[in-house]
Amino acid sequence: xxxxxxxxxxxxxxxxxxxxxxxxxxxxxxxxxxxxxxxxxxxxxxxxxxxxxxxxxxxxxxxxxxxxxxxxxxxxxxxxxxxxxxxxxxxxxxxxxxxxxxxxxxxxxxxxxxxxxxxxxxxxxxxxxxxxxxxxxxxxxxxxxxxxxxxxxxxxxxxxxxxxxxxxxxxxxxxxxxxxxxxxxxxxxxxxxxxxxxxxxxxxxxxxxxxxxxxxxxxxxxxxxxxxxxxxxxxxxxxxxxxxxxxxxxxxxxxxxxxxxxxxxxxxxxxxxxxxxxxxxxxxxxxxxxxxxxxxxxxxxxxxxxxxxxxxxxxxxxxxxxxxxxxxxxxxxxxxxxxxxxxxxxxxx
Length: 349
Description:
Elements: H1 2-23, H2 35-40, H3 50-69, H4 80-94, H5 110-115, H6 123-132, H7 135-145, H8 160-167, H9 169-181, H10 194-217, H11 222-248, H12 257-278, H13 283-289, H14 296-315, H15 321-330, H16 335-347
Helix pairs in contact: 1-3, 1-12, 3-10, 3-12, 3-14, 4-11, 4-12, 6-9, 7-9, 8-9, 9-11, 10-11, 10-14, 10-16, 11-12, 11-13, 11-14, 12-13, 13-14, 14-15
């Protein structure tokens, strides 16, 4: 089975890939910009190589999953009962007609949000009306706007209109999308409840990092950079839920954290892509989730997740700040990109 092979390869080669990655010198960043970014222009400063950023991102993300599931660092052989769980999860999520209980519904207001800036002259009014329809959403958006990740002034932001003035329309759209999706990540399981909490914290940090990266390289993509982070996080959450459901159907089998890590790494991106298509998101967002090197949002996704994950691992005392910054530099991220984003992420701790 393809998934079984992917899990075995990921488990056996993870440490080796990390060693190879860290052994590579950063090297000069000679014209690594995706062609789609070149075509749109508006790019200032060097842009990291998306392939190097993706490799680093995959490796540090695996470390985060191991921490969230409390999995041992060394790969373990699967017992037959665990292999059956693996195959059942893969079959459920890769089916041509997957069980809808595993896939979150698109938030009702999401299509309106996506259309909210079609006409810049009415963007402010549209956003205000979207949020005003839901008092809980309003509260969540204002909480995010006043969080250390986004707050830019000592005075609190008390209204949506004020948030638009302070943060801008694109930034607020990202906050609205984040607030819409946050309830999906609230832990309701007794097994591995730390995983959805850590996944969500990484998602918040990564969305902010991706937005700041886009501000420096493709300012017109600020909202899309945040949205692709949110969509990418849905896949791992769905895999987590499906795995625990399969274990619940077989109560005699003890949940295996190593298998949960491997399933999340192997199936998470596939499920994220499926959700993005089902929600009828733009081809650019789908291409970024597929990690297309020709799509500029791919780099924003990898950079955002990489820095978000590194900052979270730092708060968990898994790595030091120096180790995190060295990893980011090894991935090809120049100081001009890293410094302001890292300062914002660490200020939020």
